[in-house]
Amino acid sequence: MTYTGTNRLLDFVRGLGALTVFVFLLVGFPIVMYAMTGSPIPDSLPSWAEVSTALMRPDYDNQLFLATITLIAWGVWCVFTLICITELVGCLAERSTPLPRPVRPLQYLVRDLVATATLAFSTVASIAGSASAATQTHATSSVHSAADPDQGGLHHQPLDHVTPTPTPPTSDWTPLLADQSPPAPGPEHPSRTHTVERGDTLWDLAKRAYGSGALYPKIFESNQGIDQPDGIPRLTNPGILHPGQYLRLPHLAEPGGAPRAPRTPAEPKQGKTSGTEIPEPSRAPSVRTTPSQVPAPVVAPPADRPAAPAPSTPHHRDEDHSLVAFSLPSGSWIGIGLATALSVAVAATRLHRQRRRPVNTDPNSYGTTPEPPIPVPALKARQAHMATYADRDALLPSDRELAGDELLAEEPKTLVIGAHGDRPIAVSLPGLSLGLSGDGGHAAARAITTELMPKARRYRAEIIIPRADAEALFPGADITGLSAALEGLIITASLGEAVEHLEAELLHRGRMLQTNELPDVPALRAHDPAEPLPTLLLVATVPAHGDAAVHALTALGRRYCLGALILGNWAAGTSLDLAADGTVIASHGPDTDQFTQARLFHLTADDAVGMLQTVRTANGSEPDAPAPPSTGRTLEPTPPSVTGLVPPPRPVTEGQQAPARLQVLGPVLLHTTEGPITTGLRKWAKHLLAYLALHPKGVTRDQVIGALWPDLVPESAVIRLNTATTNIRGVLRTATGLTEPRYIIHAAGRYRIDPDLIDVDLWQLTATLTEAKRAVADGDTDKRINALAPVSDLYTGGFANDFQFDWADAPREHLRRTVVDALGHFVQLIKEEEPERALATLEQAITLDLYTEPLYQDIMRLQARLGRPDAVRRTYQLLTARLDEIDAEPDEETLELLAALRQPKLPARHRSPKVSE
């Protein structure tokens, strides 16, 4: 569709109208209100008698009513103004901040008005740009005409006097949903096309495509009137996007006149090469496939050319995770969807185990409560997911954030199951009718099912599998325990029982649609969001002579949100014959075009079983039997012991302190006697300091490189290590004025922090914990109390909590548990003599372990002992609210404790003395 002058006029009128409304609400409304009702600020505050009189007397003249309406109107205007200021600040910072729910509609109104108002200016600019472009085109065509040899113009001029005409860049974009093709972009608007996903905004798309969110009106203007797929509305409001919409990302003009293409997601970020920044070292050309390293994400090559070597860092295409895939050392090939789901499952598993973890009051084993190991395949998938954040220099989400986001997720509608070259292949779950056969059929079905299982929680999807097929897909897995733990997995005795279950659900949904006079299940979900209507997927082997019932179900699948994944040939739908590596060898059926020469994700049976075990524990369900020992190397490094973090004592004169201090509890920061060092220290230097703080006795160069820069070639990693060391020494010498010390010692092939020159807060904490351990051996209670008292003050935050890396996870978690156990031990020692101090210590402990239920139980007991029943109830409510964040509830033991503690008891001085036996 051509963007005509009529369209521009309509956009200009709409933008001018929105601008008028916005200016009136912001400026005109208070003027009108002031003229009608006067100033909203009273001359003096009314007395209580005046207020009572006004409220109690009959409002015959409606003065009280009008005053109330006036007050509400001024209040709404104040909120509107504050929202405008907030949005202005967010615009300048290029960051969108959602406000609390009660005022969010007003925030959306402000955004819509501003977005629509910009159409007036962008349309004028577009008309002016079109006129300028027309003039330039005419001039260029004149030059070309003159330069034509047939016309005799500039034929005899030297070639260096002729400026070549730049060729606009071509687009190699392909749609995300391969089963639907977006409208081809018109010749007047060279562009790329983007399929809207849930959570997309025009601001974010403009920022990702052009580097500035303020250019979103260009995208909105370019997409007026574009036809959309069936059931998806057109783009009419810049503040409202619908998943599945097709958006053109037009080529914009650079200041010099050259066209600026939208950023291709595959384009790597350019490092800074000016000023004091050093360009990033080159990446390794291939992957070092050691089991402990992060698996390298790769993109499937086209079938007509050999695969290129896998890159050593994640190939992340901006924020479009669906284009990323990962090869695991076991031979599995998974997409970012499965990696993300398993990363969430690992986070939820940790939180549920934290909730049940008892406080260990033995100083000899602080922080070492045994837990079943998380299977290696799940940890590898988590590392792959986290690598995508590091690739774009984004802060890694915490376990709490991952688990919270998962609870807010909606039902899965599509699933990326493979790639065709560098283009993902996505299938729609409702109406899916796909058969997988060949050597790789089960492996591909295993990958699809495993990805869907963690997404099937909270009534979002249901997977129905006959027991024989489940055992064939996941040999060795506890199918019964998994089905009991996952509310979205249904194991039936046979295919007939599975079909009966689907038919019953089909009739149920049909009656609901007829009763509510709605066309399909998606409309029914929107009509009644509380009604559990998950997407149903049948995964089964269907015999050739018994496919009539399943075919009838899949024919109605799109309307009723049903789908079928058939293990074997499937004549009634699309059937794929797969090689062992997931490559499509042959295909037949209605959707074969998108699968030709494609490659599907696939999982080995061992990887799938380990992943499903993590999905099970993510629901808080632990297997009855202990997990079998892992055959591969664990990815969770053993944290250093408390005594291992204490350097040998240094001889110091009384009152003398080291010239520098390193803070790694909380954000990593260097201090001198003058204060913190806030400039000059590079990012990699901070990482090196934190890593060396974990190893007071020193580490080899290979250990440093293997932990901090495993994805770099050795030469580049050595350069980075030397650069970081030089940066640390230079910054400290400048800050302290001491030019001779080295601060970072490199001797006998090991790097370590010089303890005579740098104090480390982590070493002070671990020295205190070591002293408490010695006091236990001495049997002196007072000495233990005095040794443990400083722990709460010394632990100022999580280890290096301003950045996230795999090598820091284990020591950070171990240290947190150690401190919580030490605080619990301290409470046990002082609660009889100093209950108030013990209560304050426990309240600090639950800020470190938000979900550890035994800590809340101890707090409730102390509050009851101090005669505070209301505090007991509030503590229980706080526990309930926090456990709700991970979709859990307090144990029956805690509920029984609450009931027991709320029973009225006589104070100790009123109780009858015990009768001695």
Automatic annotation (TrEMBL):
Domain of life per record: Bacteria
InterPro entries (UniProt xref): AfsR-DnrI-RedD_regulator, BTAD, LysM, LysM_dom_sf, TPR-like_helical_dom_sf, WH-like_DNA-bd_sf
Ranges of compositional bias, category Low complexity: 253-268
Listed Basic and acidic residues bias regions: 189-198
Transmembrane regions listed in the UniProt entry: 12-36, 64-92, 113-134
Pfam families in UniProt: BTAD, LysM
Protein name per the record: LysM peptidoglycan-binding domain-containing protein
